[in-house]
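Quick one before lunch.
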Amino acid sequence: MNYKIAVVAGDGIGPEVMEQNILVLNEIGKKFGHTFEYTHVLGGGCAIDKFGEPLPQETIDVCKASDSVLLGAVGGWQWDTLPGDKRPERALLGLRGALGLYANLRPATLHDALKDACPLKPELVKNGVDIMVVRELTGGMYFGEKGRKQTDMGEAAYDVEQYSEKEVERITRKAFEIARKRNKHVTNVDKQNVLESSRLWRSVVLEVAKDYPDVELDHLYVDNASMQLIMRPTTFDVIVTGNIFGDILSDEASQMTGSIGMLPSASLGEGSLGMYEPVHGSAPDIAGKDIANPIATILSGAMMLKYSFGLLDEAKCIEDAVTKVLDDGYRTGDIMSDGMKQVGCKEMGKLIIERL
Ligand code: NAD
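Model of the nicotinamide-adenine-dinucleotide complex:
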């Protein structure tokens, strides 16, 4: 098969980690008989420097016309003094909006070889952590009406948490479909004991669940979920939740995996087009030194193969190669520990390719 991929490598370590991702994907293409055709476009600080804006129309057009989008990272101190709507990070929100990406998938997987880097007690994670947080990305209070008003207690500010049935239904279906490809267990997280928006959320989740009798469903209030995540992390499979709860819980879950340099993510919409990126930023402090960990970006490439192209064996091949390289004792600086062999970004990419 032939796939068209838009590449927004971005700033800082973005281009370095993306280079390794593309080398890995090309090797997968050779092995499994696919052609990946890349179109490189600018987004973030580099686009500001060249075009005066973080997300040029050409970048949006190329992304829309592609089968999928790979993103490195955007941002850096050079652009830190620009006003909010001119900053590199606008490229991320702009692309998510333009491509209609409403579901954010953030897996938190603790590799056996990195168990020492997990801040939880060994007995809590000995059965392995493999959680997929499915977060609603375009609704809730981050996008609801906001404003300020005078009250008899002084100035007040508000951000409205609002969800419609359709918004909840589509993210819930996404979570159930994903659970079907994993361990068939969805945990819905809301706050229906207090919030009206959560009561609607819960009722839609229960309705959608009727179409997935093969998937186990349970519910947690968000405050309890944040406790259960660190008390019994190995018992979770897929967590589905709204924008703000997902923002917080996915960061909490991510800390179990050892380093931000290990965490991939996917943003999906209605069709197969998705945007795949590491969770980390552009890490300007280590950019250009060939020491960044490329694994988060390489695993994002694997997510693209799985969720946009349906290439499950190819995705697993990459995931297994990453596991092997860690089992063989190779580490970038961010995940280095005593007795391991420290390598740079390029070397890590090469070692993964050798194990595909
Ligand atoms: P960051 O994720 O870039 O870096 C945080 C720390 O983690 C740094 O010490 C960095 O060296 C380290 N780190 C990050 N990725 C690493 C990797 N792959 N390998 C090894 N170490 C790694 O977050 P920050 O410092 O808060 O932000 C830097 C810039 O990135 C800012 O301009 C910020 O706005 C931007 N940012 C972009 C995104 C994105 O593009 N999705 C996300 C977060 C932050």
